[in-house]
Design a protein that fits this description.
The chain has helices at 33-46, 67-84, 96-105, 121-128, 153-170, 190-198, 200-204, 218-223, 233-245, 256-271; strands spanning 12-18, 50-54, 89-92, 109-112, 132-135, 178-181, 211-212, 250-253. It is of the alpha/beta class.
């Protein structure tokens, strides 16, 4: 199923399905297709507009994953979900071969935390013709949180994303396929994340749909006095509501039902 990115539907809820053995807040539970199906059915009932499936852990310090492992984790799950439901599926990957196999199996959005910087990735995305989320990251997952540094975080992240849009246009990806993401938590201190969040309007003003992923992230843990990951729901909902208010198009979240409720309030006030 294609994803409806028209602004009347914003913000859409992207429910997270991790199929990595080590992902940080719900790791290891959904790497059996049957368990994944149950989880996806539940997220759909709760109000998810699409499901994001990733087989590469991009948490700080995570090791690289081989193409074979990523394919083996992600593709059977996409096929199983596709047999079960028409819910749009986003594939969280940087590898052209995984993009191709995922779209062939039924994915309809590519979510690339490396913004198509891997060799062959822009060409694969162009050929597949599906929407592509370009995310900003400073450094690489293994080391990105060691010492993040910016002169001006908003200008630098925006400039990077605009440069990646140009690279996309160079291989024939049309602007209507592009989604932007400032990449909260990816090579950023809590202060950098907060500044980017406050200035989310700068990203929205570009006219491209903006995806925001802050659900359960360490930014929330820090602001609440090193709150563990299981106790970040209220913080996640507050940020999801603010992101919706500021014009985000897609919210990438773990807690679908609670986020849907929070966004219903946001939408009601905006439409009053
Ligand atoms: C640490 C950092 C642990 C990040 C886990 C994560 C995003 C994403 C992820 C995001 C887009 C998580 C993440 N975060 N894709 N993939 N935007 N587009 O919370 O913010 O699962 S991984």
């Amino acid at each position: 199923m294609a994803i409806d990115l028209s602004p009347e539907q914003w913000p859409l809820i992207m429910g997270i399905l991790n199929v990595t053995p080590d992902s940080f807040s719900d790791g290891g539970h959904f790497n059996q297709p049957s368990a994944a199906i149950e989880r996806v059915r539940r997220m759909i009932e709760e109000g998810a507009d699409m499901i994001d499936i990733g087989g590469e852990s991009t948490r700080p310090g995570a090791p690289a994953v081989s193409q074979e492992d990523e394919l083996a984790r992600v593709i059977p799950v996409i096929e199983a979900i596709r047999r079960d439901s028409p819910i749009p599926i986003s594939v969280d990957t940087s590898k052209p071969a995984v993009m191709r196999a995922a779209v062939a199996a039924g994915a309809s959005l590519i979510n690339d935390v490396r913004a198509l910087q891997e060799p062959g990735a822009p060409e694969a995305a162009a050929e597949l013709g599906v929407p592509i989320c370009l995310m900003h990251m400073q450094g690489q997952p293994r080391t990105m949180q060691a010492n993040p540094h910016y002169e001006d975080v908003v200008e630098e992240v925006l400039a990077f994303l605009l440069q990646r849009i140009e690279a996309c246009q160079g291989v024939g990806i049309t602007p209507d396929k592009v989604i932007l993401d400032p990449g909260f938590g990816f090579g950023k201190t809590a202060g950098h994340n907060l500044t980017l969040f406050r200035e989310l309007g700068r990203f929205v003003e570009t006219g491209y749909p903006v995806l925001v992923g802050v659900s359960r992230k360490s930014l929330i843990g820090k602001l609440l006095g090193e709150r563990p990951v299981e106790e970040r729901l209220a913080g996640s909902l507050a940020l999801a509501t603010l992101a919706g208010w500021l014009g985000a198009a897609i919210l990438r979240v773990h807690d679908v039902r609670e986020t849907a409720d929070a966004l219903a309030m946001c939408r009601a006030v905006q439409q009053a």
